[in-house]
Amino acid sequence: MTRLHPINLLVTGGCGFIGSNFVRYWMRQHPESKVVVYDKLTYAGRKENLADLWDSPNLSLVVGDIGDMDAVRRACQDNAIDLIVNFAAETHVDQSILGPLVFTDTNVRGTHVLLEVARELSIRLHHISTDEVYGHIRDDHQSVETDELAPRSPYAASKAAADQLVQAYAITYGIPVTITRGANNVGPYQYPEKAVPLFSTNAILNEPIPVYGDGLQMRDYAHVHDHCTGIETVLLRGIIGEVYNVGTGREMTNLEMVDIVLDTLDKDHALVKHVTDRPGHDRRYSMNVDKLRALGWQPQYDPKQAVAEAARWYAENRTWWEPIRSGEFREYYEKQYAERLAGAGQ
Ligand code: NAD
Ligand code: DAU
C-alpha cells in the first residue's frame, strides 16, 4: 500500500460509528501518523468507542463543534494538521424528520466552516458523503458519481448541500478535496437507533422488530471495515477533486436483512411487526463502485456476511449498548415507535 508522508489528521466525528472504526483502522495501518479526533460528543458520539486507544501518544481528542470556526482553526494550527477527514454529522433520517434544523446547522454550515478553514490554512479535506444524495434509484440503474443529486429527506438534502459545497470550493478556490459516498454501513459501535443495531438489540431482548411499511425497500448493507479501506484508498490514491462511491454494489430488501439478523441470533421471526412507513422513504439505493475498484480496492464482506457479523457483535457486546438503551434513547424510542407498534400488523 502506498504511504502518505507522515501525516497529521483531524478526524471530525471520530467518536461516532464510522469515525471510530476509521480511527482504529487508520492508526493500525499508519502508526507514524498523528490523529486528532474533533468531536462535539452528541448523543451519537461516545468517547468509549475508542477506549482502547486513548493511551496512545498518537491520538488526542478536542471536544468541539465543527460550526465553531475559531475552535476548528485552533485545533488545526495547534496540531499542524495537513488533512481533515470529515465524518462529523447528524446522521439519522428519522431524527431529521423529527427535528431537521440541527441537520442544516451541522451538516451544511459545519462543513462550510471546515472548508473555510481548509482554504485559509491550505489543508486537504476529505468529505464523507452518502448514497442518499442520489435519492431513490429505479430498478434498472446503479448510481455513478456523475449522476445528478436528488435527495428526498432533510438528512439527505443536508448531505447533498455539503457535498456540493465541497465540490464548489474545489472549483472556485482550487482547494484539494476528495469525496466518498458511502452505502448503508453496519458493524461495531453503531448507535442503536439505526436499523441493524436496533433490530439486533431488540431481538436479543425479545422485543418487536419494527419494519417500516412492506419492508421491500432495498439497501446495500456494507461492512464498516470496507468503508474504512475505501476511504483509505481514496486518501492514498484518489484523484484530487474526484468523488468515489463506496459500497458492495449489491442490495437486499430490509426483510432479507431482518431474516439474517433473526437467523444469526436464533430468534423467532414472529418478532417482526410491520409498522407505519417512514415519510418519503426511498425505495432503493444502489451504487456502481467500479471507479473505486479501479484504484485497486475491493470489499472483503458481502452484504449477508456484513449483517450477520454485525448482529453477532451486538450479541457479544451487551456492555456497550445496554447503558445506551437505558438512557435518553428510551425517550426517542417511545416517540418514534410507541404509536406505530400499538397499531402494528404481522
Ligand atoms: P454517527 O451518528 O455514529 O456519528 C456522528 C459523529 O459526529 C458523532 O461522534 C457526533 O458526536 C459527531 N458530531 C455530530 N455533530 C457534530 C458537530 N456539530 N461537531 C462535531 N462533531 C459532531 O454517524 P456515522 O454513522 O458514523 O456517520 C459518519 C459520517 O458518515 C456522516 O457524515 C454520515 O453522513 C456518513 N455516512 C454514514 C453512513 C452510515 O451508514 N452510517 C453511510 C454513508 C455515509
Ligand atoms: O444509506 C446510507 C445512510 O444509511 C447513511 O447516510 C445514514 O447516515 C445512515 O443512518 C443510514 O440511513 P438511515 O438513517 O436510513 O438508516 P436506518 O438504519 O435507519 O434505515 C435502514 C433501512 O431500514 C431504511 O430502509 C429504513 C428501515 N428501517 C429503519 C428503522 C430505524 C425500518 O424498517 N425500521 C426501523 O425501525
From TrEMBL:
<dbReference type="GO" id="GO:0009225">
    <property type="term" value="P:nucleotide-sugar metabolic process"/>
</dbReference>
<dbReference type="InterPro" id="IPR016040">
    <property type="entry name" value="NAD(P)-bd_dom"/>
</dbReference>
<keyword id="KW-0520">NAD</keyword>
<dbReference type="Pfam" id="PF16363">
    <property type="entry name" value="GDP_Man_Dehyd"/>
</dbReference>
<dbReference type="GO" id="GO:0008460">
    <property type="term" value="F:dTDP-glucose 4,6-dehydratase activity"/>
</dbReference>
<dbReference type="InterPro" id="IPR036291">
    <property type="entry name" value="NAD(P)-bd_dom_sf"/>
</dbReference>
<feature type="domain" description="NAD(P)-binding">
    <location>
        <begin position="10"/>
        <end position="309"/>
    </location>
</feature>
<comment type="similarity">
    <text>Belongs to the NAD(P)-dependent epimerase/dehydratase family. dTDP-glucose dehydratase subfamily.</text>
</comment>
<protein>
    <recommendedName>
        <fullName>dTDP-glucose 4,6-dehydratase</fullName>
        <ecNumber>4.2.1.46</ecNumber>
    </recommendedName>
</protein>
<keyword id="KW-0456">Lyase</keyword>
<dbReference type="InterPro" id="IPR005888">
    <property type="entry name" value="dTDP_Gluc_deHydtase"/>
</dbReference>
